[in-house]
């Protein structure tokens, strides 16, 4: 038997051993392959499961024995989707013949402590139980969704975003919680000027560069003044989309989802601000990674997050 056949044999043996040790995951694969597995009516059952075990049956279907553990040990899930995808492919190709041979990335422990939400998101993406209780099952669906399924939510996302996003701190006095909500609503309701938006994007990019390399020049101060003079919608928003705006929640110091869509809506319970994101590698579906010219493996599965914060517009004028 040549080396390539031996390598494939070891890889398949690792998969078999991993699968044999995951009885619950195998059971879930058989029970939850129907479309109704993620039906919105099952959200409470899934929520209880996530609390009790750190994972749902739906997330278990993202698990690839051996490969999921390999990627979790060796990849820091930060950066752009294209950058991450190249790293994932490189790691899988390098260690396909010895999934347990790769040592843990030296910076992973520090990353996991500083970015627990991103760490849990990566684990759930790979079909592994979360460690930090960062995610829950949302009680809501997007207003414009046509799919019968439940979504996930980042625990405390709104609280973090409102309390730490300094782009809402332009006034001499700190804003109250209601004041910050009022400003987000104002941002979402403001008609967009494409010329101002284009200029704001360029200013934010330049300021981010200065900040990354420790520059605090007079030019930086002038750029910040110009950015704030354009108005809060342009200082905050990364992009304008059909049903809302896109912001970067890493600006709030929580580095959890990256670019997130914010939108306004209302139902029988009142008005709300909603956030939505898709946790993935910038790919529309699961990753298909090449192990050799004749062998591929599917790993991971994107999942969507969505949650709401209800507000009372009457309180805006009470302050």
Model description:
Helix 5 crosses helix 6 and helix 11 (194-212) packs antiparallel against helix 12. Mean pLDDT is 76; it is low at 4-8, 10-34, 166-172 and 251-255. Strands 3-4-5-6-9 form a 5-stranded antiparallel β-sheet. Strands 1-2 form a two-stranded antiparallel sheet. A two-stranded antiparallel sheet has the order 7-8. It is globular. It is an alpha+beta fold. The chain is built from 13 helices and 9 strands. Strand 3 (239-241) and strand 4 form a beta hairpin. The chain folds into 2 domains: 3-155 and 281-301, no CATH class; 158-277 and 308-317, no CATH class. It has helices at residues 3-20, 23-31, 43-53, 57-60, 67-74, 81-95, 108-114, 116-125, 157-164, 177-189, 194-212, 218-229, 232-236; strands at residues 135-137, 152-154, 239-241, 244-248, 259-267, 270-279, 287-292, 295-299, 303-311.
Summarize it.
The protein is α+β, with helices and mostly antiparallel strands.
SSE layout and pairings?
Blueprint lengths: L2 H18 L2 H9 L11 H11 L3 H4 L6 H8 L6 H15 L12 H7 L1 H10 L9 E3 L14 E3 L2 H8 L12 H13 L4 H19 L5 H12 L2 H5 L2 E3 L2 E5 L10 E9 L2 E10 L7 E6 L2 E5 L3 E9 L8
Antiparallel strand pairs: 1-2, 3-4, 4-5, 5-6, 6-9, 7-8
Helix pairs in contact: 5-6, 11-12
Tell me the structural class: alpha+beta
Q: For the report, how would you describe the main beta sheet?
A: 5 strands, antiparallel
Head-to-tail CA distance between termini: 78 Å
Which strand order does the major sheet show? 3-4-5-6-9
Number of distinct helices: 13
Percentage of residues in DSSP E strands: 15-25%
Per the principal axes of the C-alpha atoms, what is the gross shape?
Answer: globular
Number of domains: 2
Helix content: 40-55%
Q: Give the total of beta strands.
A: 9
Element pattern in H and E: HHHHHHHHEEHHHHHEEEEEEE
Unreliable stretches (pLDDT < 50, length at least 5) are 4-8, 10-34, 166-172, 251-255
Mean pLDDT comes to: 76
Integer-rounded radius of gyration: 22 Å
